[in-house]
Write a structure and sequence with these properties.
- The protein has 339 residues and is an alpha+beta fold.
- Helix content is 22%, strand content 29%.
- The chain contains six helices and 18 strands.
- Strands 1, 2, 3, 4, 5, 6, 7, 8 and 18 form a nine-stranded antiparallel beta sheet that branches. Strands 9, 10, 11, 12, 13, 14, 15, 16 and 17 form a nine-stranded mixed beta sheet that branches.
- It starts with 20 loop residues before the first strand and ends with a strand.
- The structure holds pyridoxal-5'-phosphate and 2-OXO-4-methylpentanoic acid (COI).
- Pyridoxal-5'-phosphate binds at residues 60, 221, 224-226, 245, 247-250, 284-285.
Length: 339
Amino acid sequence: MAKKDIAWSELGFSYMRTNSIARIKFKDGKWGAIELLNDPIVPIHVAATCLHYGQAAFEGLKVFEMKNGDIAAFRPDENAIRMQNTADRLLMECVSTELFLETLNVIVKDNIDFVPPYGTGASLYVRPLLIGSGARIGVQPADEYDFYILVIPVGPYYKNGLSPIDAWIQTEYDRAAPNGLGHVKAGGNYAAALYSDKLGKKAGFPISLYVDSREHKYIEEFGTSNFIAITKDKKYVTSDSHSILPSITNKSLMTLAKDLGMQVERRKITIEELENFVEVGSVGTATVITPISSIAYGEKVYKFGETGKVGETLEKLYNQLQGIQYGDVEDKYGWMYKI
Ligand code: PLP
Ligand code: COI
């Protein structure tokens, strides 16, 4: 199929209508067949639990056109497992890894003309979504669920990709409770951060860094991504907390950092420790590695690296990760899943 006529290298991270959306319905105790819908407007029961009680889980992964022409997804089995964990936590029906991958194959093949060509720096963003669609008015889980996968060609999440951006920490509004939902990908986590993210953007910070909700002392993660930092002696440091999302990108980068001979530390990180870091990054599917130039916290501003430039270690990790994803670097761990 001929590629769509799109300015691939200029893509940002916005919704775009593509050929189809995949849907499977869970009804009468079983999952039905995969349907391909052309219309993105879907009917929903007004008493569906996703609308009232937040039974909504989502995922995010990317599909790449590789150097050798293969079309492949990055570690989609990990997303399937994480969605099962979210479903368990929200008492929703799980989608098996097998069904998740089957649906991924179907939807990507039907939208193959939207997969950005190799060399454009863009990719196909895949957004699986699981919602309680059965009607309830008392607070209880639904007995019917809809599983969707939509796909959208995307470029960088934050403007200019590898150009550093400024972050802030505020402690007036919390994102995730210590034993709440932060460790799963529940839609409500993102609703919880909209207000404080907006305050941040208004103050000139495109990205917000959240700290733990109990003591407001330890760094957790960004609203969109995990937090990583590099020390003067080139250690890779990342937060350990029950209330942050286990990032597949961060997990992969820890492996790549060890391969580069770096020491990796996953532990509690206090805000004051920001003083010791020479590079800081936001890492995730959408943000890949987005360097952070500064973090404002009250009157204090922590600065990292040279103004406007990505640091050498984050750049090296970025090149390794994207190299594997686009097929320029050997995929020795078998992370790329061929469609
Ligand atoms: N943390 C949050 C809050 C996220 O939304 C994401 C994105 O999915 C991540 C971390 C990064 O996770 P992953 O690398 O699996 O995309
Ligand atoms: C992703 O990186 O896939 C996410 O889901 C993050 C979201 C803020 C776009």
